[in-house]
Design a protein that fits this description.
Number of helices of chain A: 9
Helix content of chain B: 40-55%
Structural class of chain B: alpha+beta
Order of helices and strands of chain A: HHHHHHEEHHH
Helix content of chain A: over 70%
Number of helices of chain B: 9
CATH architecture of chain A: Up-down Bundle
Distance between the termini of chain A: 57 Å
Shape of chain B: globular
Oligomer: heterodimer
Shape of chain A: globular
Low-confidence stretches of chain B: none
Mean pLDDT of chain A: 95
Largest interface: A-B, 41 and 52 residues
Radius of gyration of chain A: 20 Å
Largest sheet of chain A: 2 strands, antiparallel
CATH architecture of the largest domain in chain B: Orthogonal Bundle
Number of strands of chain B: 7
CATH superfamily of the largest domain in chain B: Alpha-helical ferredoxin
Structural class of chain A: mainly alpha
CATH topology of chain A: 3 helical TM bundles of succinate and fumarate reductases
Chain lengths: 229, 270
Amino acid sequence: MSLKKIFNSSTGRKAAMGLTGLFLISFLVVHCAVNALIFLNDGGDTFNRGAHFMSSNPVIRTLEIVLFLGVIWHIVQALVITRTNQKARPVAYAVVNANASSKWYSRWMGLLGTLILMFLIIHLKHFWIGSRFTGLQSGMILIDGREYENMFGELKLVFSKGIVVIIYCLAMVSLAYHLLQGFQSSFHSLGLKHKKYTPVVETAGVWFSILVPLIFALMPVSIYFGWIS
Amino acid sequence: MLSGAISNRLGVLVLLIISYILNSMNLTLKIWRQQNRTAKGGFKTYKVSDVSPDMSFLEMIDVLNDKLIREGEDPVAFDHDCREGICGMCSMYINGRPHGPGKGITTCQLHMRSFQDGDHITIEPWRAAPFPVIKDLAVDRSAFDRIMQAGGFISVNTGNAQEANNILIPKEEADHAFSAAACIGCGACVAVCKNASAMLFVSAKVSQLAQLPQGQVEAKERVLQMVAQMDAEGFGSCSNTYACEAECPKLISCDNIARMNREYLKSSLT
């Protein structure tokens, strides 16, 4: 069976969503771990070194392209699936009691994903575009006699505005609910179900969905309130 | 002695009549009426009075139809057969839920005691492009038959059945296969799924055979052909809300969907 045929089938599309979803989850782990270096509260030195490594390492730069492709594939598949699903029910029910049988966030993955995409565009504009193309507003900083991009300074600049902090926190709420459904769902779509391991995956998924967005949200909040300097 | 027995029976009868009068319900039904596949349908409101709480939902519709026939109106068309919850024919979307309120029951097993006097009940047919309305509340579910014809079977030689103990099957596997085989193909999974996906039905049929030795011979072709037919019929994609499992009258587990995904990937990649 050709790969094209597989990924054009409903089951193949689900697998693609699961596969890209798990890949994006692995990216979140790395992104969260590097960003959490700001909590060392050392004036951002370790964080700036970490950010420099991430932006200069050729393996990471290559994976960055794969990451963008993964995001695009995830979005394209979601749009195709949504269109197919709309066609499958041309006449809507007059009364729907959906809460009786499913969780609201499992039904609103598309909306949650759209909110995350909107946040992603804002987030890339704040940091990635400056770092890769236009240069950071905070310029460069000397650490132990070596010049680094002052990414920590950029964080302090961006998160000095209350409205930005609120947008970031709301986006993390969307991410939390998207993950709450998406984490275990990815394994399910790939057929990875086991009576011993699935409960572990489900519990890990809940903790991951709470902790990772919480750590991300704590970054703008901590900087805004001056808990980190 | 005899007069005492008669008076006792009379007492019981009087109590039954009083109980009926006190418990009977008056309901307002909003029912989808559609003359045929191509006609434009719409809701029509009916009043039904003196409904006993002990009636099944279908018996309540029978009472309404009796009234409609007496009044010279077209009765409401709906699917039904065994009225014992095992045939999978009844298919009503009642107040926003397939087979109405209650867990693990079909419409024929839903009793009017689940409702209150004065309730307004909205009744719709299953809504899905592959399930076109035939008339009113009856839909054409032959898409399921075509999926079954695509691979939901095993090929065996005719003749005497062989000794059952020739093929030993572990109890746990037999139980899992049986629980998947309990699917009655009513279509509630499609009806409740926000995407009108048929994956619970198809996965139950794939799973019941995938877990038994007799199903291994055609395992690869089966899952590929059944999924291809499901897609060709125009069902939506599963997004793992698990609403199908929650509303399934036979409580078929979504674990079957994961098994079908695994079988599909294994079969298509090898």
